[in-house]
Write a structure and sequence with these properties.
Distance between the termini: 23 Å
Number of helices: 9
Helix content: 55-70%
Strand content: under 5%
Structural class: mainly alpha
Low-confidence stretches: none
Order of helices and strands: HHHHHHHHH
Largest sheet: none
Shape: elongated
Amino acid sequence: MNTKQHSFLYRNGLTLFFLGLFIITLIAQILTGWKEHDQEILEKGGSKLSLSAYLHSGHFISATFENFQSEFLQMGMYVLLTVGLRQIGSAESKSLDEEEDVDREPIPGPNAPAPVNKGGIWLKLYNHSLSICFFLLFFVSWGLHLYGSWLDHNDQQILMHRPPDSVIKFLGDPTFWFETFQNWQSEFISIVSIVFLTIYLRQKGSPESKPVDAPHMETGK
């Protein structure tokens, strides 16, 4: 494949566009979350935080990784479950009966990724590297969400002149699980939406859609 005929921006436009949106919205989250948190602290008789202090606060850590962990869980489950589960007519499903390219055994070659040519344990890990990566990111993000929520909870305890709770005790608090489940359910319904709506709806030119003239019950792209 000759990539020299295309510019760097053209070759990486999708990643760069969403990375740019991520950075812009993260900065917006930081600034608005900082101001919102300061208002809450002042109302409870505390003192304002500097921006640097806010970035180390439970409020920021919890809010950020609360969203990260649900996204990584969604993608990890989606990647893994689409191996074996099907949805007739969906552009997001493999064919009901036919073998597809993603099911073929990897063949070593000069253009194959290094783990394919090495074989053995490296190939076994590489066979599942995408789902492994997403689930590792999920568990790390879940842990940081727990840590941030615990810090924020104890900050609130101190403002109300109450003793801080241990992380074990906090795990029994419904607040953390409410934050967790409200994000998980939104990710699961978004998967249902893309899987089901691609049966009947189209977007010309998108790899996430079937061709516009494809029959509704044609499964896969």
